[in-house]
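Supplementary Methods S3. Complex input for the magnesium ion-bound model.
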Amino acid sequence: MKEFIKVKDLYFKYEEEDGQESDFALRGIDLTINKGEFVAVVGHNGSGKSTLAKHFNAIYLPTTGDVTVDGMNTKDDDRVFDIRKKVGLVLQNPDNQIVAGVVEEDVAFGCENLGVPPAEIRHRVDEALKAVDMYEYRQHSPDKLSGGQKQRVAIAGIIAMEPECIVLDEPTAMLDPRGRDEVMETITKLNRENGITIILITHYMEEAVLADRVVMVDQGRIFLDGTPREVFSRVELLKQHRLDVPQATELNYKLRGCGFDVPDSVLSEEECIEAIMKLIKG
Ligand SMILES: Nc1ncnc2c1ncn2[C@@H]1O[C@H](COP(=O)(O)OP(=O)(O)OP(=O)(O)O)[C@@H](O)[C@H]1O
Ligand SMILES: [Mg+2]
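Predicted complex, serialized as structure tokens:
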């Protein structure tokens, strides 16, 4: 797989307004994201996830170390525009990302800023709205949409700019379970069908399980990086870092602790049921 984003020995410290020294928010992050991957970044509150996310499209620059996007260093002023074209960022609150009074105008906004010709914008907006399954709402006012629908419109605005990678910082945190499912389905589809590289920052372990790879952070460092199955088999290590595991994984882990012969790790309810049925039958 081709390397896309490369983070090398990244340390980052926020500037304090009162001139006081603050602690490093990121301390020695090394991470390579390959083209086409779907990576979940998980960590406790304040572990540095959002700070890291903002390094992926040059909103923040390393205090020391380097971040490159498709070979372009984020510290290179001349490349910031190109980097932001390649890496789009979706934030937590859809209300803060909606700028226009009509859905399709909102989706067009980013493209207009990029100077895309009007006929091309029309085409891109329609395709982006279809990709997130919001085409029939194109003439609606965003105010009247549900949280999940608004977040999908925000994602469409990013897709219309045709990025190669989308970074989503807790995009489902403010949504109800239905909105959360809608957004997760959209993200998964963009990765699988359109080949867009996805970096999903999330608190929800059930969402992380859907990724190809899970990166766990704590106190500005990565402490685990692997497939969901690898990562969620380390239940004890995760608990030491005050992190949960998916419910099905937790139940399986407890059964194992009681001496039952179940697999090392299960990720879904289906797998958990299968393991328990085997116990009952055998
Ligand atoms: N603008 C800022 N100025 C100073 N310190 C900050 C700022 N933003 C974040 N921090 C600090 O940097 C550290 C990492 O914060 P960050 O927001 O990246 O964590 P997070 O993992 O995204 O947390 P959450 O799950 O709450 O979104 C924390 O200690 C936080 O207090
Ligand atoms: Mg955050």
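The pocket of adenosine-5'-triphosphate (ligand 1) is lined by residues 14, 22, 25, 43, 45-51 (CB under 6 Å). The first helix runs from residue 49 to 53.
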